[in-house]
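To whoever is on call:

I kicked off a structure prediction for a single chain this morning and the downstream step that reads the tokens threw a length-mismatch warning. I double-checked the sequence; it's 277 residues and nothing unusual in it as far as I can see. Pasting both halves so you can look.
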Amino acid sequence: MATRTLRKMAPVGCSKIALMSGILWVVLGLAACRTTPITHRSQLILIAEPQEVAMGFASYKTVLSKAKLSTNQAHVAQVRKVGERIAAVANRPDYRWEFNLIQDDKMVNAFALPGGKVAVYTGILPITQDDAGLATVMSHEVAHAIARHGGERMTTGMLAQLGQAALNAALSGKDPATIQNFNDAYGLGTQLGVLLPFSRNQESEADRIGLVLMARAGYDPKAAIEFWRRMSKVAQNKVPEFAATHPSDETRIRVIREWLPEAEKEYRPAAPPPSAR
């Protein structure tokens, strides 16, 4: 019965989907004209960068207003020193770079928001251990910012919603329970088939761009391998890679080894400070 009903509806539903798909492909054709730095991957971003940056600034302000900033002057100075060196080679002088250290020893993480707002949690410092380890983390976050991964993810979500609307149009007239079942299935398929793999691709791209940035800033890119080895030892509650937003540590280390020659071409050890000469 359900099959016969869907077949009767198909001409109307498909025509609506075809129209929406046609409009979508026009938008894609007009918008897919940006490429990421270093990797030169074509991107689709439907959000104007000033709007994206404004949202990033607002979110960063909200996060910091609720967080406790570290008062450890040595650690704060280290985060800002490493961050500023990486920002200096990121080729985005128009960004209002800001680097903060949030006091939370249980949070092993860092993040970047559009426009150059970066934060590191104190919980990751025992794993970074030194400037090069910290540069691995911060160059990865800076890479997210200059590659506009935030705007790209938002665009992906917008397109997923367009797909949801097309599906609802095809199922118009069906009972609510059937529509909900199809919507649930579509949501799961989108999450595992598009959004999560896409996010993993962005994470890998940020690793690759970050390797080059840390090398240009004078940090040995080989330190990234040691950092991820340390990270793998403390990671808990690992989920299968196909259902995760980040590549597994093992995958990360393997591809970083493959990208090292590219980064090492850019590596020039930074000159020691005058007091150490």
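Update from on-call: the warning came from a stale cache, not from the record. Cleared it. Sanity check on the structure: Residues 1-20 have pLDDT under 50 and may be disordered.
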